[in-house]
Amino acid sequence: MQKPPQDQVPTLQQVWDSVEELWPAALAESWDAVGPVTGRPEREVRRILFAVDPTEAVVEDAVEQGTDLLITHHPLLLRGVNAVAADGFKGRVVHRLIESGCALLTAHTNGDSAIGGVSDVLIRSLGVEDAEPLTAAADGLPGEGLGRVGDLPRSMSLAEFSERVFTLLPSVAGGVRVAGDPDGLVRRIAVCGGAGDSLFDEVRASGADVYVTADLRHHPASEAREAAQGGHPYLVDVSHFASEWLWLGDAAGALHRSLADQGFSPEVAVSGVNTDPWDFILVP
């Protein structure tokens, strides 16, 4: 088969189509809002930027870089709105994007559930090569679904594993919190990028020794530890932003390859803006 000529410029619609192939909207949870937010389908796309959050700082950075399409993991407009006037930050973001000719697209829980998605990248980065979803996607292909679980090549102490998590993730004020015996051995690892305390039943059913996720609230975490009676699964609580940031590089690479296969060669990059909301922490 003859390869298409390189250096063609894709339209926004063509990039949207590639995104849909990689992270199908059908994989999104029913409450989610994914897909295009702003942008004209016929516009040419020469530069694409990935980020976790569509904050004003991220959008300003994207505009200053001459970005044609900003792809974020988290939605800007998750819930219904009646207006996007620029007297609030979401309205300002919408106006800045449109006035600057920068389109916005969201790949949220579809980016979580897809093969090669957020949790796939997280567990693979921790050293687990063969993982399966904690909960399968409805009508999805094998391997699709929320969370991942699999085995490390060797057992290690919880302290050593937690250090691996800490070293892997970007630096944030909250650091990494751990519940469990530092000397306890772990090998079977469960993860869920982003907030994952709704998956405790699936984690226990998977036989995981430790669960890595974000935003663990007091009561679900306390009840999980009580149920474990000091044993497995241990808990490793990380930054929501940090747990999902790892995916951006893989996602950018996947989209670049998809477009290159069609003869397109836009620049695809990852935002350097840290959107973790916390600035500092006080500890004893």
TrEMBL record:
Keyword Zinc-finger: no
Entry-linked InterPro entries: DUF34/NIF3, DUF34/NIF3_sf
Residues binding a divalent metal cation: 73-74, 112, 240, 244
Keyword NAD: no
GO molecular function: metal ion binding
Pfam families tied to this protein: DUF34_NIF3
Keywords: Metal-binding
Organism: Galactobacter caseinivorans
Domain of life where this protein originates: Bacteria
Record family assignment: Belongs to the GTP cyclohydrolase I type 2/NIF3 family.
Subunit structure as annotated in this protein's UniProt entry: Homohexamer.
Cellular component, GO annotation: cytoplasm
Name of the protein: GTP cyclohydrolase 1 type 2 homolog
